[in-house]
């Protein structure tokens, strides 16, 4: 795997492990407890998993034509700055319909962890397909930021988890 992608993947894995450690010992009832129409801990984690799974499917298609994909540039870097800021602000964003429709229900934290383990194994397999000269090619379509390269995609995954972690921590305090 490309060295830079390996670094980003490892950071993403550490972040995932930290989040799963937070919820490792909670009961199924606590994991699935929702208040006033808000997502439960299980729903938040399921959302993260589903968004990554859908992204991996898209990446697997886009890598087939990667050599003709345009390269990212300063515009995409600026979009990433805006995307990062948006994920750090305490605003709520409506999940894309395709993610909502493809979010499975997991009853137990163990099931969530297993699904996320498999998702990350699938992501690693995709990342291993990228050659050094392909990591700046547009391969991922973010619903708001548009086309991004694989490095920016992994950075978005990190920001997505960062965005939802306070939500999980708040729910843990309430359970």
What is this structure, in a nutshell?
The protein has 175 residues and is mainly alpha-helical. Helix content is 63%, strand content 3%. The protein has helices at residues 3-23, 28-31, 41-62, 74-88, 97-101, 109-127, 150-174, and strands spanning 140-142, 146-148.
Structure, explained:
This protein has seven helices and two strands, in the order ααααααββα. The protein is mostly helical. It has a two-stranded antiparallel ribbon. A hairpin with a 3-residue loop joins strand 1 and strand 2. Helix 1 (3-23) runs parallel beside helix 7 (150-174), helix 3 (41-62) runs parallel beside helix 6 and helix 4 packs parallel to helix 7. The longest helix is centred in the last third of the chain and has 25 residues, at 150-174.
Name the features:
175 residues
Please estimate the helix content.
55-70%
Give the H and E element order.
Answer: HHHHHHEEH
Strand order of the largest sheet: 1-2
N-C termini distance: 41 Å
Tell me what portion of residues adopts beta-strand conformation: under 5%
Mean pLDDT: 94
Number of helices: 7
SSE order and pairing:
Elements lengths: L2 H21 L4 H4 L9 H22 L11 H15 L8 H5 L7 H19 L12 E3 L3 E3 L1 H25 L1
Antiparallel strand pairs: 1-2
Helix pairs in contact: 1-6, 1-7, 3-6, 3-7, 4-7
């Amino acid at each position: 795997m490309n060295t830079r992608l390996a670094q980003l993947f490892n950071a993403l894995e550490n972040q995932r492990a930290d989040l799963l450690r937070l919820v490792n010992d909670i009961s199924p009832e606590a994991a699935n407890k929702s208040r006033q129409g808000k997502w439960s801990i299980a729903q938040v984690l399921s959302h993260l998993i589903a968004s990554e799974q859908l992204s991996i499917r898209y990446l697997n298609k886009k890598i087939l034509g990667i050599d003709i994909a345009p390269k990212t540039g300063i515009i995409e870097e600026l979009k990433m700055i805006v995307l990062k800021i948006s994920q750090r602000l305490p605003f709520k964003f409506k999940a894309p319909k395709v993610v909502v429709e493809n979010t499975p229900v997991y009853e137990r934290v163990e099931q969530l962890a297993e699904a996320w383990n498999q998702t990350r194994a699938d992501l690693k397999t995709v990342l291993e397909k990228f050659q050094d000269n392909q990591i700046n090619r547009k391969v991922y379509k973010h619903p708001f930021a548009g086309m991004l390269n694989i490095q920016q995609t992994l950075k978005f995954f990190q920001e997505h988890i960062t965005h939802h972690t306070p939500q999980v921590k708040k729910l843990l305090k309430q359970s």
